[in-house]
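Design a sequence for this backbone.
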């Protein structure tokens, strides 16, 4: 599993993540909930090696990640889809996907995986020579997920995949996330502000406030909790 223990991350004197401990069991979808500024993106960035923790541990299947460079973390089987997608905007769809496999040498398998990505995201195949910047928001999100999958991750980190999507596209993206988890066995750690959608696909979740975990449990337990209902579901009963 992906395991985090007593993790702290600071920007100067400001602590963005404070003593976080959580587990993402292999094969599951786990949600991390919280408002903007709660520390969710910082936590994912620390896991992916983009920022350094000041103390605590991050392990993937028992191996420490905290001091590794991002490319070595990708080699260990973990990939991040960032909040703003960070596509290579002037490159084509196909080139973006190929760059997702830049650490791989198995070219025949890479070609096979390109076909698999187009099977998951059929809207991308006829646009494979189109610049990424010309895609719609939903298509860009599909491309960002596809690019991450090209590294063949065992663990996929998704940062706000619903951001800027229409309700129809949001539903399509989350259906694909479930399929990837079910059909490929990929473990998913999902950061999301859309609480109801996130907990509809996740088995369990954590709530982050001011950099600290304030609640955790199964999706059903969180949906029933007073904290989640009052703060993240608009007081729904």
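Sequence:
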């Amino acid at each position: 599993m992906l395991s985090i223990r007593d993790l702290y991350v600071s920007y100067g004197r400001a602590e963005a993540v404070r003593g976080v401990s959580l587990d993402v069991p292999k094969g599951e979808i786990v949600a991390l909930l919280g408002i903007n500024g709660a520390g969710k993106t910082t936590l994912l960035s620390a896991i992916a090696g983009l920022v350094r923790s000041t103390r605590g541990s991050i392990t993937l299947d028992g191996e420490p990640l905290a001091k590794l460079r991002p490319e070595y973390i990708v080699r260990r089987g973990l990939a991040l889809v960032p909040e703003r997608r960070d596509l290579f905007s002037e490159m084509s769809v196909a080139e973006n996907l190929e760059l997702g496999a830049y650490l791989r040498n198995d070219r025949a398998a890479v070609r096979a995986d390109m076909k698999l990505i187009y099977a998951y995201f059929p809207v991308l195949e006829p646009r494979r020579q189109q610049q990424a910047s010309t895609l719609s928001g939903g298509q860009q999100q599909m491309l960002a997920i596809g690019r991450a999958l090209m590294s063949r991750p065992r663990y996929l980190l998704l940062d706000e995949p619903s951001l800027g999507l229409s309700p129809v596209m949001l539903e399509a993206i989350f259906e694909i996330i479930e399929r990837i988890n079910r059909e490929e066995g990929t473990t998913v750690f999902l950061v999301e502000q859309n609480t109801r959608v996130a907990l509809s696909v996740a088995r369990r979740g954590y709530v982050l406030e001011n950099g600290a975990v304030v609640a955790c449990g199964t999706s059903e337990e969180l949906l029933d909790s007073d904290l989640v209902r009052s703060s993240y579901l608009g007081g729904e009963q």
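The radius of gyration is 17 Å.
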